[in-house]
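Proteins fold reproducibly. Take a sample protein:
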Amino acid sequence: MAKATITMDDLLAQEGEGVKQIIQGEVVEGTILQVRKHEVLVDLGAQGVGLVPRREVGFSRNLALGDQVSASIVDPEMENGYVLLSLRKAAKDRGWDELAAKMDSGEIIDVSPYDANRGGLLVEYDGVRGFLPVSQLSAEHYPRVSSSDKDEILQRLNVLINQPLKVRILDADRKANKLIFSEKEAVKEGLAARFEKLKVGDTVKGVVTGVVDYGIFVNVEGIEGLVHISEISWERVNNPNDYVKVGQTIDAKIIAIDKDRLSLSMKQLGEDPWMKEVDQFKKGDAVEGTVTRITPFGAFVQISPAVEALVHISELGGGDGADPEKVFTLNERKSFVVLDIEKENRKISLGLPKTK
């Protein structure tokens, strides 16, 4: 029986049967063949040589000759015969899978923001770019600024660029290309344990993180606290900035524990001077004082450094039609009579001396 004749075409066809055809979007494995200034060549074995272009050289700057890499096929056959590859896309695809797993498990991960805008911090993790909104920052890093000044917010956020932060993944949606991180969620469990150790009446130390019109925000070992303007000092406070500065360490007393915040008081760490000074007055005393405020319902009068009293509109004569602004002048000193003292309510009522 005659032997079949095998042609060169047959041999080439047989050899080619073992070579898998590569397609766009596929992820392949290769070995770094050459690292050039503006490109990297990758040995894909029987599938040829892949080229990583200059735009990804910075992304692949840690690669060295002989390294094994995963790459995504961008173009199976370029005009120069190379296979166009993307290391970034392969890393991104692989990153999405890892991110979804970390989100499901609730794992805490370390990130370092590479940029910031007024809405939050820009973060890249496992080749995928995401966002850490301002609202998801912990109390330690939340930019508490007066009047929500956007430029000041950005200035505070810029300080966090390249700083390590512990976060959890809130959302990882590959189709929508949406990746959201939360520092607040990452510290939640630790805060719960710290909250259990605190109680109303405790004195704590904290760092001032923001000063606003209505009070002072304080970071107490990662827990956010607020000293309301009424709890800053026993004296009347017009501007909280006169008492503290951002970054300053202060002592404060816990006066309430809310769900995720402490209500603090600075003034309650000291003796109430009002209680001490009020003892020098008694009902019926003639006193002198300075008019500090004039309101539609009367005038406030400073009768000692810590004691402010009220002359109610009903004491001016003329009934409800009396006008305090026609009776008093701001900062003038006048004579008054003490009508009543209510220590429980920290209140002294004054009247005008009766004319003979």
